[in-house]
What does this fold into?
Amino acid sequence: MAKSVIYTCDGCGKQKGEANRWFRFAVKKVTVNPPAREMVVAEWDVDDMLANHMHLCGAECVSKKVSEFVGGKANGNSV
It folds into this structure.
């Protein structure tokens, strides 16, 4: 029997349904001078998720994380 995995939004705790359009979010270090961080927001794909990506359930949770990042508050999950 196949094991069922339940994904939960890292922003609000909502569980992923089959029809939901989710996103992945990560903050990664960029090697430039001076060193910087960049945020990554991409469509959610179970086959393309890394352990350090956050699962976000939609525009509201993505917007919150983007606001935190540009405000200097989001450390997110670093890639």
The first strand starts at residue 23 and ends at 30. Helices lie at 59-70.
